[in-house]
Amino acid sequence: MRAAAAEQVAARICAAVRAQRLALPQGTVLEVTVSIGLACSDGKQQTLDALLQRADAALYQVKAAGRDAWQRCRASELRPALAPAMHA
Length: 88
Hints:
The protein is an alpha+beta fold and about 90 residues long. It is built from 2 helices and 4 strands, in the order H-E-E-E-H-E.
């Protein structure tokens, strides 16, 4: 999957989860959000562990910035890129 396509999927997932409301029997309504960390390969051979580490770093940056968003970490970067959060 190309990076742009992965970003679009992440944005749609964030919007879909944000739109959901969970009604509890007591009348309380819960709102749920999701944070997503993306890691894209540059086509060079990489280990799954390296990709997961970058995705994890991106995820924690999203959470530190306020959650309810996605962030991408490029293969050539040690730190996640500050990809814009897509709020619908």
